[in-house]
Write the structure tokens for this entry.
Amino acid sequence: MAKHKYHCHLWFPDLFNATGGIQRYSFFCFKAFQTLHPDFAYDIFIKHDTDVASKLPNLCFHPSGNWPLSLRTPAFASQLIGLGFWQRPNLIFSSHLNFSVPAYLLKRLFGIPYWVVVHGIEVWNLQNSNLQIALHHADRILAVSHYTRDRLLQEQNLDPERVVVLPNTFDADNFQIAPKPESLLKRYGLNSEQPIILTIARLEKLEQYKGYDRIITALPKIRQAIPNVHYLLVGKGEDKARIEELISQYQLQDCVTLTGYIPDEELCDHYNLCDVFAMPSKGEGFGIVYLEALACGKPTLGGNKDGALDALCQGELGALVDPDDIEAIAETIIQILQGTYSNPLIYQPEALREKVINQFGFQQFQKTLDSYLEKDFKDI
């Protein structure tokens, strides 16, 4: 490893064994580092993954997922600190705030610089004093959205120069514009002329902020204007029973389908099935699903109180509504489906796709990350 110009430690919660937003962000960070600087040496520490093999001589993986869950955190932290002490990397890059405390310790002891990524709710209203100290001593804080950056600067006494934005990205090749898939129309008993609203989200009690229940509450009003509308809610989780009760309460059994889990290879088809993608969230750090829907050329609705502001470019790429205003959600979805919404771009699929790729595609993600690396490591 000594022959490499720079040696980086990359710290991730998951990389290959999960599919959540932080996992995907971590994977794109890993891919960007490797693509931009294949001459660097990388030690990659992954808390929850199990066995990972590398065919490249400059990559060394250290997964901790084989440890029992009760012992995994101390085992992972010991590995981070132990190999950090032994190898003294040029940079520690952590894709989760929770790993910033051992990074701070290594900086205090050995002067190793560290960067930390902040996503959303884990850093909003942060009270943990150890994490606050670690944030204050980070050499760079990479926020996934301007919304999260602004909240962090409002709530913590941080140097604005060190808090920068590296927005979420996505694999545009996996999301293409296509007609409504006949197979899914048949699966869900729908016809191609039917207006379809889609949300893709985990149905977890801790993620009720995503707003799928507000769409169900808004459906009676939407149906008054568009009687044959249908709502597809994709995802699984413990909140399903509450949603089913809400559907019964509003007697919406005939116009709502809970699809349950769908594999990643069916995501694009589901986006193409809908006429509007709607997730009026109020706790989303960014929302990769918005980018995926836009890349399929779909009109997209998000909340105006969280990271959706960034994903939809302050309303340039979609509709932003107050996520607590059921009336506004209903009215906006009606306008979108009736073709009367005031932003004409949402009805131009190819233009939507082009704009979201230019703004948030992987090439732009790489370029932004490299600009920060060049500032901190001027001779790379």
Q: What stands out?
A: The domain at 7-169+361-376 is CATH 3.40.50.2000 (Rossmann fold).
